[in-house]
Amino acid sequence: MTKPLTLAVVGHTNVGKTSLLRTLTRDVGFGEVSHRPSTTRHVEGARLSVDGEPLLELYDTPGLEDAIALLDYLERLDRPGERLDGPARVARFLDGSEARQRFEQEAKVLRQLLASDAGLYVIDAREPVLAKYRDELSVLASCGKPLLPVLNFVSSPQHREPEWRDALARLGLHALVRFDSVAPPEDGERRLYESLALLLEHSRGALQRLITDQEAQREARKHSALRLIAELLIDCAACRRSVASEKTVEQQAINQLREAVRQREQRCVEALLKLYGFRPQDAAASDLPLLDGRWGDDLFNPETLKQLGVRVGSGIAAGAAAGAGVDLMVGGLTLGAAALAGAIAGGALQTARSYGSRLLGKLKGQRELTVDDSVLRLLALRQRQLLHALNARGHAAVDSIQVATPQDKTWREGKLPEPLNKARAYPQWSSLNPHPKLSQAERQEQIEWLAEQI
User: G domain location, by residue (predicted)?
Assistant: First the structure.
C-alpha cells in the first residue's frame, strides 16, 4: 500500500480553510466554521479513501495572523556570511524560541506544510489584494513545497477574482482553481484534483482514482435520491382510506390522512438530508420552509399549490362553485363550506375515476379518500427542488437551505407519470395503508420507472 498524498490547507484567518475541508470530506461536523476570526487553533486532519485504501490526507491549519512581522523576522535569521535557502531559514525559525511564543500559530502552519507533499492556499476572493497576503505567500514559499491557490467564495457578487489572478501571476503562481466551499460547482473537486496532478505528477494515479470514485458516488447519490422521491410519490398515490359517510368520522379520517402524508413527506426530507450528509437543522422554517424540522408550508393549502405554479383542476373549481354542504377536505384539498357536493361531483376526489359511484356524493356507508393529483404534483416539486438545492450546496454552508421556485413546467401541468396512475389501483403498494406489500416486484419496477422520470 502506497503512502497517501498529504496536503496542508493554509491561508489567512477566516478565509474558509475549514469550510473547504468540510466540503471536500462532505462532513458538516469537521472542525468549526464561524464568521469569527481564528476559529481553528490547532492542526486537524481528515483522510479520503477508496476501497479502504487511504489516498489523500488533508490537514486544516490555523490562520496566518502576522505574516508581515514573520517575514521580516525570517529575513534577519541569516548569520553574517550565510545565504540560507527558504527551507533552511524556516527550519532555523522553528528551532528557535519565537516559534513557541510570538509566532506560535504561524509555526504550526509551517511545520505542517513542511511535513506535507503540497499546500492548498485558500483565498477569500471577496477580499482586496493586500500586502499581508503577498507576505503570506512569500513565507509559505520558503518551505519549498508546491502551492495551489484556491479561490474561495467566488459565487459572491463581491468577488475580486480578476485582481487575485493578476496578483498571483505576478508572484509566479499561474496554476489556481476556483472552488467555492459554500456553493461548489459540480465539477469543482475534479478540477481541484486535476490541478494538483499537474503539480504532483507522482500522485496523478491516486488523484485520478479519487476523481473516478467521487463521480461514481455522485451518481449513486443521485439515483438513491430519485428513488426516495419516487417511493414517497408511490406511497401517497396508493394511499387509500375508507371512512363512514358521517360528518365527524369523515373529518377525523381526513385529518389522519393529511397528517400521514405530511409525516411521510417529512421522512423523505430527512432521508434526503442524511443521504447528502446534511443535518436536519440545516433546513430552517423560513427557507425550506420547515417548522421545527418539518415542512412549514401547509401541503394541503391551495395557496401553496399556486406559489409553485401547480394548476388546480377545473373540476374542483367548477364543482365547488355548484355545491353546498359542510367543510370537508377531499383527496388532499381543503374545500370551503359550500364546496362538498359539487366538488366531489366535479372530480376533486381523484379515485372517483377508478372506483365509481360509491365515491360520488355524500352517500351512506363507506367512502374512500385518496390524495389529490395536485398534492402529488406539489410533493414532487418540493422534493425535486430540495434535491437541486442539496446538489448545489457545500458542506461549509451555514445559512439554511433555500428551495427556489421551479422555472420549468415539469410536474406543474400535463398528465402525471403512468406509475402514479397505476399505483392508485394497488393500495398494498403504500406504507401508509394497513398490510402493505412493499417488496412486490411490480412496485419496485414502477418506482424505478418513476425515478427516471423525476
Answer: 7-152
Q: Which of 59, 33, 24, 32 is nearest to 45 (CA)?
A: 59
Share of the chain residues as helix, strand and coil, in percent rounded to the nearest 5: 50, 15, 40
Higher pLDDT: 202 or 396? It is: 202
- Cell numbers standing for residue 57: 490526507
Beta carbons within 10 angstroms of residue 128's beta carbon? 9
Alpha-carbon gap, residue 298 to 378, rounded angstroms: 11
Distance CA(209)–CA(54), nearest Å, equals 11
Cα(123)–Cα(15) distance, rounded to whole angstroms?
A: 6
Residue 264, in any domain of the structure: yes
Per cent of the chain over pLDDT 90 is 51
Which domain covers residue 126, as residue numbers? 5-199
CB 423 within 8 A of CB 231: no
Count other C-beta atoms under 10 Å from residue 167's C-beta. Answer: 19
- For residue 215, is it within any domain? no
pLDDT band at 396 (very low <50, low <70, confident <90, very high): confident
**What pLDDT shows up at residue 213?**
94
Cα→Cα distances 228→55, 231, 266, 269, Å: 31, 5, 12, 9
Do both 181 and 254 map to the same domain?
A: no
Judge whether 60 lies within some domain.
yes
Quickly tell me which residue has 553574517 as its cell: 80
pLDDT at residue 198 tops 90? yes
What secondary structure does DSSP assign to 381-440, as a single string? HHHHHHHHHHHT--TT--SPP--PPP-S-TTTSSPPPHHHHHHTT-GGG-TTSSS--TT-
What is the domain-level CATH number for residue 47? Answer: 3.40.50.300
Domain identity same for 347 and 406: yes
Q: Are residues 138 and 240 in the same domain?
A: no
Q: What cell numbers appear for 152 in the block? A: 474561495
3-state secondary structure of 170: helix
Q: What are phi and psi of 114, to 5 degrees?
A: -65, -30
Higher pLDDT, 341 or 222: 222
pLDDT at 31: 57
**CA pair distance 86, 105, nearest whole angstrom:** 19
Distance in angstroms (rounded) separating the CA atoms of residues 426 and 102: 73
Question: Which cell numbers hold the place of 149?
Answer: 491557490
Helix (H) or strand (E) holding 72: helix 67-75
- SS3 for 209? helix
Residue the block writes with cell 400521514: 260
Q: Which three cell numbers stand for residue 254?
A: 381526513
Place 307 in a pLDDT band, splitting at 50, 70 and 90.
low
In Å, what is the CA distance from 334 to each residue of 142, 181, 329, 381, 447? 70, 43, 4, 20, 29
